[in-house]
Design a protein that fits this description.
The complex is a heterodimer of chains A (about 650) and B (about 210). Chain A is an all-alpha fold and about 650 residues long. In chain A, helix 4 packs antiparallel against helix 5 and helix 15 packs antiparallel against helix 16. Chain A is globular. Chain B is mainly α and about 210 residues long. Helix content of chain B is about 65%, strand content about 0%. The longest helix of chain B has about 30 residues. Chain B is elongated, with a radius of gyration of 21 Å. The two termini of chain B are about 40 Å apart. The chains are: A mainly alpha (about 650), B mainly alpha (about 210). Chain B: Pfam families: COX3. Chain B: Keywords: Cell membrane, Membrane, Transmembrane, Transmembrane helix. Chain B: It is found in: Cell membrane.
Amino acid sequence: MSTTTSTAPGVGRDDLARLAEHWAEPRSLRAWLTTVDHKKIGRRYLVTAAFFFVLAGLSALVMRTQLARPESGVVSPQEYNQLFTMHGTAMIFLFATPMLFGFGNFLVPLMIGSRDMAFPRLNAFGYWVFLFAGLFMWASLPFGAAPNNGWFAYAPLNQVQHNPGLHMDVYALGLLFLGISTTAGAINFIVTALKLRAPGMSLNRVPLFVWAIVATAFMVVFALPALNADNAMLFFDRRFGTHFFDPSGGGNVLLWQHLFWIFGHPDVYIIVLPALGIVSAVLPAFTRRGVVAYSLIVLSIVAIAIISFGVWVHHMFATGLPQLSYSFFSAASTVITIPSGIQIFAWLATMLLGRLVLRVPLLFVIGFVVTFVLGGVTGAMFAVTAFDQQVTDSYFVVAHFHYVLIGGAVFPMLAGIYYWLPKITGRMYHEGLGRWAFWLAFTGMHVTFFPMHLTGLFGMPRRVYTYRSEPGWDGWSLVSTVGSYLLALGLLLVLVGVVHAVRRGRPAPADPWEGDSLEWSTASPPEPYNFPVIPRVHSLHPTWDARTVESTTTGATADRVLSEGRRTLFTSELDARTERAVEMPEPSFKPLVLAGALLVFFTAMLLAAYPIAVLAVLVVAATIAAWLWPSRRPDEELGLAS
Amino acid sequence: MTDRGGVVAAATGVAALTTEEPVGRPAGWWGMVMFVATEATLFACLLGSYFYLRFQFGPQWPPGGVDKPKLLIPLLMTAVLVPSSLPVVWAEHGIRRGRRGRLRAGLAATLVLGLTFLALLAIEYAEDLKHFTMTTDVYGSLFYLITGFHGLHVLVGLTMIGWLLAASLRGGSFGSHRHERVRNAAIYWHFVDAVWVAILFTIYLSPRL
């Protein structure tokens, strides 16, 4: 079923040589700094997000060590506040979303049969901004100036009169900076999936993972501005004395929460949806059949993306809002379980009807189903206002969202790492190491977070740096701490497994799993131009479909090889009919320069060096102007090229 | 927005695909529409915050003895900004027919109208700052944040228009297919216009209702 592409029949040797020449990126520092290749950028996203994951995970281990025993003094309250804030902020903003963007960057063009993203240089820019914004935020920790008010940064505690120092300025500016990257990435995903799909990949043949990424990208476009508005107002309040969240000047502290959760609840699905997309992508290879109920899953992805904007107040049931709003948001929060349930049942049906191949990726998928369902059940409990008011701000909440986020996002990501490692690195992973990693991580996860349901019901508040032993929280807290070390060990083994694969793994064939989507029709790792021949898609499972496979090996017409330049094919939005060939941009320093100028701007704003900030804005404007300046031959000439 | 807008017939096989007016929307168009969508949501959040804070505040609005906003300058600003969308459309139609003169004239007209708008905003600020500032109370905070943010967007739009004007003055390099960029800048400019109408209603008219 798989194809070998190094000698794709139908493509002449000189065609391949020309393609390689047009898309070549030599191994040099210059190429490293200027690359616009979506595969390299995707890998960078994955590695950088994993790095921030390790930092955030270590913060968590320190916290668990502190909480292992009552009244211990491993860290001071001030340090603890910074640790739990950076843990949450980094896990949500610097790990979960960028990690999934990393998968998306690497996979979306390969899955839809394109040679790159729609805006490759914007893509490179997005990565550099993500890297710089992440370093910007973490760099505050050694100075004791890290954000210290929780990842939700509630008012009035985020106001300068209650929280002096740079802490929350780092938060506001860091997230505004990072938001540029996330927005740019999201727009890029939407346009790529709309315009760059291979001929024949109509909307009903788009892989579920790509659907999930596109739905996520739409949610980013419409949810992130709320957070940006919030943070802009926060920064103005703190630095320039405005009164948005300050009641003494007529402001309102609840405005912060409304805007934060208008962003924050969709963000839960911004994290979970692409992870669910990974599950839908992994399952066919290990059940030997397509995922059941494709259309229903697509509809439920879209439904989740829409309904998630109507549930934010369930984070605010304890704030004293009008009763009517409780009823509405309670109902919406219950309704959103339906599309989530549809997907779960579709996957269960796929596994029941398929022939299971119990490799590591499938283990993580099964671990995901178990854990995510438990987290979903406690989620439905929160939709009941009375119950929510009882357990809110207790460890029960901590247990719930770690079940959802580790179960619903981290486990699918780990499944994805093992599944696509051969494609990304060209090497197979060690199965035994992978199994150990799974069982340790799975056991550790449940040992850590299940007891938190109990400590929460016993009344232990979250975010406290220590506690007394009288209420009987200490036994279960110790169990949680032991579990967290098991979990960390499991995750360490994942890392060991990846390093082992890169160093010692046996070379991977193009299609080790007999997967059903287009990325398996190219070499492992793919050539810089991805596909020697742009495939023509005839079904939902292109690499299982003889006609599609044939289209990549024979009958390679000039309009699908496009070897005359750095080109890819644009198709129509709905039914993917061929429209035109488009010249893709060359590598460039400008994305890096632009991101660097923005880093200078945000650092200058943080340190109140406003003249430097103004200077940086001018550099930003000049770079963008130069970036877009028409320097190539006039298009009319290209239009006549033979 | 890095789309080069280049329509190329890569090989004889796709020569038929290269038409004067491409069938589908180009990538740059989608990119700009999505960018405008996210920016529009940002303004929706800001204007929503305005009404939220206003109704949480109480019946007296603006508070603290500040007069209701005067309408003369804002209406003048509207009279300048809203019609400024027309010369952009005119310029875009012009370059589609390869008429660079119309492109330049249209862009220049928009540039003048946009700069007039910013000058009027400066006059408005100079008058208002005598009575209240950003730090006076939450009304001042909202007033200056929202109008200031919009002014910033006008500036960004004018930068785009100015860039296009400069690029079109550099002869030869601004082919007829570059009209995609004019169209993208036009979308942004229409958006800046539309947001202004929402701001006119929210900031200047709604306190008088």
